[in-house]
Design brief:
The chain is of the alpha/beta class. Helices cover about 25% and strands about 30% of the residues. The chain starts with a helix and ends in a 5-residue tail after the last strand.
Protein backbone atom coordinates (compact mmCIF):
# COMPACT_ATOMS: atom_id res chain seq x y z
CA UNK A 1 0.00 0.00 0.00
CA UNK A 2 1.00 3.59 -0.44
CA UNK A 3 2.58 5.19 2.61
CA UNK A 4 0.86 7.80 4.74
CA UNK A 5 3.23 10.41 3.34
CA UNK A 6 1.86 9.61 -0.13
CA UNK A 7 -1.69 10.09 1.15
CA UNK A 8 -0.77 13.39 2.80
CA UNK A 9 0.98 14.52 -0.37
CA UNK A 10 -2.05 13.60 -2.47
CA UNK A 11 -4.38 15.59 -0.23
CA UNK A 12 -2.01 18.56 -0.10
CA UNK A 13 -1.70 18.50 -3.90
CA UNK A 14 -5.46 18.88 -4.16
CA UNK A 15 -5.39 21.90 -1.86
CA UNK A 16 -2.40 23.36 -3.72
CA UNK A 17 -4.02 22.98 -7.14
CA UNK A 18 -7.13 24.89 -6.12
CA UNK A 19 -5.03 27.31 -4.07
CA UNK A 20 -3.13 28.25 -7.24
CA UNK A 21 -6.41 29.09 -8.95
CA UNK A 22 -8.19 30.61 -5.98
CA UNK A 23 -5.07 32.17 -4.35
CA UNK A 24 -6.50 31.67 -0.87
CA UNK A 25 -8.03 28.22 -0.48
CA UNK A 26 -7.14 27.33 3.10
CA UNK A 27 -7.79 29.74 5.90
CA UNK A 28 -7.28 28.64 9.51
CA UNK A 29 -9.75 30.77 11.43
CA UNK A 30 -12.78 30.22 13.62
CA UNK A 31 -15.39 27.80 12.25
CA UNK A 32 -19.12 27.51 12.72
CA UNK A 33 -20.27 24.80 15.10
CA UNK A 34 -21.57 21.71 13.30
CA UNK A 35 -22.99 18.55 14.80
CA UNK A 36 -23.48 14.96 13.64
CA UNK A 37 -23.10 11.37 14.67
CA UNK A 38 -21.19 8.73 12.71
CA UNK A 39 -20.73 5.05 12.14
CA UNK A 40 -17.38 3.35 11.61
CA UNK A 41 -16.73 1.53 8.38
CA UNK A 42 -14.19 -1.07 7.27
CA UNK A 43 -13.39 -1.10 3.56
CA UNK A 44 -11.77 -3.73 1.33
CA UNK A 45 -10.50 -2.57 -2.04
CA UNK A 46 -11.80 -4.50 -5.05
CA UNK A 47 -8.26 -4.62 -6.49
CA UNK A 48 -7.21 -6.94 -3.66
CA UNK A 49 -5.46 -4.32 -1.55
CA UNK A 50 -7.18 -3.98 1.79
CA UNK A 51 -8.10 -0.44 2.79
CA UNK A 52 -9.87 0.17 6.11
CA UNK A 53 -11.92 3.34 6.46
CA UNK A 54 -13.66 3.99 9.77
CA UNK A 55 -16.50 6.47 9.52
CA UNK A 56 -17.42 7.90 12.92
CA UNK A 57 -20.57 10.03 12.95
CA UNK A 58 -20.79 12.63 15.75
CA UNK A 59 -23.72 14.40 17.42
CA UNK A 60 -24.79 17.18 19.77
CA UNK A 61 -26.69 15.15 22.33
CA UNK A 62 -28.36 11.74 22.45
CA UNK A 63 -31.15 11.60 19.86
CA UNK A 64 -30.57 15.24 18.89
CA UNK A 65 -30.19 14.59 15.16
CA UNK A 66 -30.50 11.74 12.68
CA UNK A 67 -27.53 10.10 11.01
CA UNK A 68 -27.90 11.91 7.69
CA UNK A 69 -24.42 11.06 6.38
CA UNK A 70 -23.86 7.36 7.01
CA UNK A 71 -25.78 6.14 3.95
CA UNK A 72 -24.29 8.71 1.57
CA UNK A 73 -20.72 8.10 2.76
CA UNK A 74 -21.16 4.34 2.39
CA UNK A 75 -22.56 4.84 -1.12
CA UNK A 76 -19.63 7.04 -2.14
CA UNK A 77 -17.18 4.46 -0.78
CA UNK A 78 -18.92 1.74 -2.77
CA UNK A 79 -18.58 3.86 -5.92
CA UNK A 80 -14.83 3.70 -5.35
CA UNK A 81 -15.01 -0.09 -5.61
CA UNK A 82 -14.86 -0.87 -1.90
CA UNK A 83 -17.30 -2.73 0.35
CA UNK A 84 -18.05 -0.84 3.60
CA UNK A 85 -18.78 -2.80 6.79
CA UNK A 86 -20.68 -0.70 9.31
CA UNK A 87 -19.26 -0.86 12.85
CA UNK A 88 -22.09 1.04 14.50
CA UNK A 89 -22.73 4.56 15.80
CA UNK A 90 -20.51 6.57 18.14
CA UNK A 91 -22.19 9.42 20.00
CA UNK A 92 -20.80 12.80 21.01
CA UNK A 93 -19.32 11.51 24.27
CA UNK A 94 -15.60 12.44 23.99
CA UNK A 95 -14.47 9.34 25.90
CA UNK A 96 -16.42 7.00 23.61
CA UNK A 97 -15.27 8.85 20.50
CA UNK A 98 -11.63 8.78 21.66
CA UNK A 99 -11.88 5.03 22.26
CA UNK A 100 -13.41 4.52 18.81
CA UNK A 101 -10.70 6.55 17.08
CA UNK A 102 -7.97 4.76 19.04
CA UNK A 103 -9.35 1.33 18.17
CA UNK A 104 -9.82 2.28 14.51
CA UNK A 105 -6.25 3.53 14.25
CA UNK A 106 -4.96 0.07 15.23
CA UNK A 107 -6.14 -1.53 11.99
CA UNK A 108 -7.35 1.26 9.69
CA UNK A 109 -5.40 2.79 6.85
CA UNK A 110 -7.76 5.77 6.90
CA UNK A 111 -10.51 7.08 9.16
CA UNK A 112 -13.40 9.14 7.81
CA UNK A 113 -15.62 10.99 10.28
CA UNK A 114 -18.59 13.28 9.80
CA UNK A 115 -19.55 15.93 12.33
CA UNK A 116 -17.85 17.27 15.42
CA UNK A 117 -15.26 19.35 13.56
CA UNK A 118 -16.43 22.87 14.50
CA UNK A 119 -16.03 24.91 17.65
CA UNK A 120 -19.17 23.90 19.54
CA UNK A 121 -19.22 22.25 22.95
CA UNK A 122 -20.16 18.92 21.33
CA UNK A 123 -17.53 19.12 18.58
CA UNK A 124 -14.79 16.75 19.75
CA UNK A 125 -13.29 15.26 16.58
CA UNK A 126 -10.66 17.89 15.86
CA UNK A 127 -9.66 18.18 19.52
CA UNK A 128 -9.24 14.41 19.80
CA UNK A 129 -7.28 14.29 16.54
CA UNK A 130 -4.85 16.82 17.98
CA UNK A 131 -4.52 14.67 21.11
CA UNK A 132 -4.16 11.34 19.32
CA UNK A 133 -2.14 12.54 16.33
CA UNK A 134 -1.60 15.64 14.24
CA UNK A 135 -3.94 18.17 12.63
CA UNK A 136 -2.56 18.92 9.15
CA UNK A 137 -5.31 21.25 7.88
CA UNK A 138 -8.55 22.60 9.31
CA UNK A 139 -11.14 25.23 8.48
CA UNK A 140 -10.74 25.67 4.73
CA UNK A 141 -11.89 28.82 2.94
CA UNK A 142 -14.49 26.90 0.96
CA UNK A 143 -18.27 26.60 0.84
CA UNK A 144 -19.66 24.15 1.63
CA UNK A 145 -17.21 22.21 3.77
CA UNK A 146 -15.29 24.90 5.62
CA UNK A 147 -14.85 23.05 8.95
CA UNK A 148 -13.30 19.94 7.36
CA UNK A 149 -10.22 18.67 9.19
CA UNK A 150 -7.42 16.47 7.88
CA UNK A 151 -4.62 14.84 9.81
CA UNK A 152 -3.12 11.60 11.04
CA UNK A 153 -3.77 9.32 14.01
CA UNK A 154 -0.67 7.83 15.64
CA UNK A 155 -0.49 4.11 16.37
CA UNK A 156 1.33 2.58 19.36
CA UNK A 157 5.10 2.65 18.96
CA UNK A 158 5.10 -1.16 19.09
CA UNK A 159 3.60 -1.25 15.59
CA UNK A 160 6.71 -0.20 13.71
CA UNK A 161 5.30 -1.14 10.30
CA UNK A 162 2.25 1.15 10.48
CA UNK A 163 2.96 4.17 12.64
CA UNK A 164 -0.10 6.23 11.70
CA UNK A 165 -3.25 6.39 9.60
CA UNK A 166 -4.96 9.28 7.83
CA UNK A 167 -8.09 10.91 9.23
CA UNK A 168 -10.55 12.93 7.16
CA UNK A 169 -13.05 14.80 9.34
CA UNK A 170 -16.07 15.72 7.20
CA UNK A 171 -18.56 18.39 8.31
CA UNK A 172 -21.87 17.25 9.75
CA UNK A 173 -24.16 18.97 7.26
CA UNK A 174 -25.04 16.45 4.52
CA UNK A 175 -24.12 18.52 1.44
CA UNK A 176 -20.88 19.77 3.03
CA UNK A 177 -19.92 16.17 3.87
CA UNK A 178 -20.59 14.96 0.32
CA UNK A 179 -18.75 17.83 -1.38
CA UNK A 180 -15.76 17.46 0.96
CA UNK A 181 -15.62 13.73 0.25
CA UNK A 182 -15.89 14.36 -3.48
CA UNK A 183 -13.11 16.96 -3.60
CA UNK A 184 -10.66 15.67 -0.96
CA UNK A 185 -11.28 12.14 0.26
CA UNK A 186 -11.94 10.41 -3.07
CA UNK A 187 -8.53 11.13 -4.65
CA UNK A 188 -6.67 10.36 -1.43
CA UNK A 189 -8.37 6.97 -1.01
CA UNK A 190 -7.72 6.11 -4.66
CA UNK A 191 -4.06 6.90 -4.05
CA UNK A 192 -4.13 4.72 -0.94
CA UNK A 193 -5.45 1.82 -3.04
CA UNK A 194 -2.58 2.27 -5.48
CA UNK A 195 -4.78 3.73 -8.22
CA UNK A 196 -4.01 6.83 -10.22
CA UNK A 197 -6.22 9.60 -8.86
CA UNK A 198 -6.99 11.40 -12.12
CA UNK A 199 -8.64 14.81 -11.74
CA UNK A 200 -12.39 14.70 -12.18
CA UNK A 201 -13.57 15.96 -15.60
CA UNK A 202 -13.97 19.74 -15.84
CA UNK A 203 -15.60 21.91 -18.48
CA UNK A 204 -15.90 25.64 -19.10
CA UNK A 205 -19.47 26.50 -20.00
CA UNK A 206 -21.79 29.48 -19.88
CA UNK A 207 -24.04 29.96 -16.88
CA UNK A 208 -27.66 30.64 -17.79
CA UNK A 209 -28.61 32.48 -14.62
CA UNK A 210 -27.28 34.80 -11.94
CA UNK A 211 -25.34 33.18 -9.10
CA UNK A 212 -24.62 34.92 -5.84
CA UNK A 213 -21.01 34.55 -4.67
CA UNK A 214 -18.95 36.31 -2.01
CA UNK A 215 -15.30 36.87 -2.83
CA UNK A 216 -12.77 35.42 -0.36
CA UNK A 217 -13.63 31.74 -0.53
CA UNK A 218 -13.90 29.02 -3.15
CA UNK A 219 -17.45 27.80 -3.64
CA UNK A 220 -18.71 24.52 -5.02
CA UNK A 221 -22.29 25.30 -6.02
CA UNK A 222 -24.45 22.44 -7.20
CA UNK A 223 -25.47 22.69 -10.82
CA UNK A 224 -27.27 20.99 -13.69
CA UNK A 225 -25.25 20.72 -16.90
CA UNK A 226 -27.57 20.78 -19.92
CA UNK A 227 -27.82 21.82 -23.57
CA UNK A 228 -29.20 25.31 -24.19
CA UNK A 229 -31.52 26.42 -26.99
CA UNK A 230 -28.54 26.91 -29.31
CA UNK A 231 -27.36 23.35 -28.74
CA UNK A 232 -24.39 24.45 -26.62
CA UNK A 233 -23.50 23.05 -23.17
CA UNK A 234 -24.59 25.32 -20.33
CA UNK A 235 -25.17 25.13 -16.60
CA UNK A 236 -27.82 26.34 -14.19
CA UNK A 237 -28.13 26.14 -10.42
CA UNK A 238 -30.14 23.47 -8.65
CA UNK A 239 -31.68 26.21 -6.51
CA UNK A 240 -31.07 26.94 -2.80
CA UNK A 241 -27.46 26.15 -1.92
CA UNK A 242 -27.61 25.63 1.84
CA UNK A 243 -25.35 22.93 3.32
CA UNK A 244 -28.38 21.10 4.66
CA UNK A 245 -30.33 21.12 1.36
CA UNK A 246 -29.66 17.56 0.24
CA UNK A 247 -31.91 18.05 -2.79
CA UNK A 248 -29.24 20.33 -4.24
CA UNK A 249 -26.99 17.26 -4.54
CA UNK A 250 -29.58 14.72 -5.67
CA UNK A 251 -30.71 16.98 -8.52
CA UNK A 252 -27.19 17.99 -9.58
CA UNK A 253 -24.89 16.37 -12.12
CA UNK A 254 -21.94 18.71 -11.52
CA UNK A 255 -20.35 21.22 -9.16
CA UNK A 256 -19.96 24.82 -10.32
CA UNK A 257 -16.46 25.78 -9.12
CA UNK A 258 -16.25 29.48 -8.31
CA UNK A 259 -12.72 30.51 -7.26
CA UNK A 260 -11.73 32.68 -4.34
CA UNK A 261 -11.59 36.01 -6.18
CA UNK A 262 -14.86 35.41 -8.04
CA UNK A 263 -17.84 37.61 -7.20
CA UNK A 264 -21.40 37.27 -8.42
CA UNK A 265 -21.94 35.46 -11.72
CA UNK A 266 -24.12 37.12 -14.36
CA UNK A 267 -26.17 35.21 -16.95
CA UNK A 268 -23.92 34.39 -19.88
CA UNK A 269 -20.68 34.41 -17.86
CA UNK A 270 -18.25 31.53 -18.32
CA UNK A 271 -17.80 29.23 -15.33
CA UNK A 272 -15.96 25.98 -14.65
CA UNK A 273 -17.94 22.87 -13.76
CA UNK A 274 -16.69 19.64 -12.19
CA UNK A 275 -18.60 16.58 -13.39
CA UNK A 276 -19.80 14.06 -10.82
CA UNK A 277 -18.86 11.12 -13.04
CA UNK A 278 -21.09 8.71 -11.13
CA UNK A 279 -19.65 9.36 -7.68
CA UNK A 280 -23.02 9.75 -5.96
Amino acid sequence: MSSLSDILTAAKNIVTAINNAAQSYTNVQGAQSLAGITSATVVKAAAGRVVVVSVVVAGSGAGAIYDANGASVRAMLERLGVTPIDLGIVGDDPARLEAALHDASLYADAVVTSGGVGLGDADHTRVLLARLGDVVAWNLAIRPGRPMVFGQLHRPAADATRLSCALFGLPGNPVAAMVSFYVFVRPALLRLQGAQARPLPRLRVRCTERLRKRAGRTEFQRGILHTDSAGEPAVRSTGPQGSGVLRSMTQANCLIVLPDAQGDVAPGDWVEVMLFEGLV
